[in-house]
Amino acid sequence: MIKKKEFQEYLAALKEYFVTPLKGIFKKEDKIKNSDDLKEFIQKKSALVSQHTLYGYVKTRIGTRFVMMFNDEQFAKSVDIAKWNIYVVSLQDLSFFCLSYLHAHNLYKDTDLAKSIYLEILSEEKKNGLEEEVYQKAISQFEERFSQINWTSHYQSDCFLTSSQALYYWAPIADELKKLDKAIVINSMHLKWENIKKDFPKMLLLNKII
What we know:
The termini are far apart. 70% of the residues lie in helices and 0% in strands. It is globular, with a radius of gyration of 17 Å. It is mainly alpha-helical.
């Protein structure tokens, strides 16, 4: 049986998905004025986008049986696996985007900050259920991607493609159905990231991140 806390988290995520307008994601939020604020921004937005898209897609496909399906232990576990695997890649994408933007605009030149922020968030998430296998795989993937980034131009590229593809890959939906949904699923996450890309500069309070 799914734990009460986990079930409440699923319902909360669904409420966010269907109630929170995308245009209002940044309303009344604290500005980013230092590296701690940037870390919080990356963690919260990555969780928000990954949960919105995963739970929204699963609910759309399952329909009215969505809540009852979480009583199925195997299904609940598959959603949990998908949640973590999509989230850790979302963290990568947003970390790379933010540091590339800051680097290109001479707001913060030390791109190693992306690495320290990512590792700190992952370490903290282990307390929340992030399994060691996913943790280690995420670090390895991050290191490989980190070594290949052009920090001056990355923020202008399709820098959220990896997490969008992760959503499509990990969503616990039958393959024959996912094939029909591919463009819609990937685009659903892409649109949410586009709002964050657009509004990120507005969140920067100072001329430089210190």
